[in-house]
Design goal:
Length: about 210
């Protein structure tokens, strides 16, 4: 894939460039702020962007705003956002639109190279990849919502992994159950949450994330 990086830490940025090149990806640009990221995407039209949430000059939400602008102007460009902490408002904003080709990882996950590369490949292929800790904290926001309280422990486990962007087959493997069992749990939890039936992988994740905002 053709990947553009946006990270203000020179050490981390150069390390990611080297890792991606070693994995056979192309890196047409690696920049250190949000404005430069948007300009680089306009020039190179990459397959995917990997961007830090907080970058100069204010180190608040420049990376996220750039990512959202990229999604609006070039919807075919996938976006994988990195953050030092769980930025709930930022995560919700990024996930509140179509999540096909969108990911949100904590920077600690980047240190786990296999997990980072797996997320990159998943997002690059048009799927979703959300850090388990982000999903857990978003789920925690809704512990007072009655529909979620109706879920069984197994259904909550399935919901959490769905929100991470895993397919039914991947969930079955992670939970050591059959795929048909996962499908039954998925159907049950959608009924309990009063969510419309999803017809596609990313729509299913989007429905869950919209629920988490309520």
């Amino acid at each position: 894939m053709r990947v553009i990086l946006a990270e203000d830490s020179t050490l981390l940025r150069e390390g990611l460039v080297r890792l991606l090149l070693e994995e056979g990806h192309q890196v047409p640009a690696a920049v250190g702020d949000g404005d430069a990221l948007v300009e680089a995407v306009a020039e190179h039209r990459p397959d995917i962007v990997v961007a830090d949430v907080r970058m100069p000059p204010t180190h608040t939400d420049e990376g996220l705003r750039a990512a959202l602008e990229i999604r609006r102007r070039w919807p075919e460009v996938k976006v994988l956002v990195l953050s030092q902490y769980v930025e709930k408002r930022y995560a919700t904003e990024l996930m509140s639109a179509n999540v096909s080709g969108v990911g949100y990882l904590l920077k600690d996950r980047v240190a786990q190279v296999a997990d980072f590369l797996d997320a990159l490949d998943r997002v690059g292929a048009g799927g979703a990849a959300f850090d388990p800790e982000v999903v857990r904290q978003l789920l925690a926001r809704t512990t007072q919502v009655d529909p979620l309280a109706r879920l069984t422990p197994r259904e909550r486990e399935v919901l959490e992994r769905m929100a991470q962007g895993l397919t039914n087959a991947s969930i079955a493997q992670a939970l050591h159950v059959s795929q048909s069992a996962v499908e039954k749990h998925v159907n049950s939890l959608f009924d309990k949450l009063s969510l419309s039936h999803a017809t596609g992988y990313s729509r299913r994740v989007l429905a869950i994330l919209r629920f988490l905002e309520s």
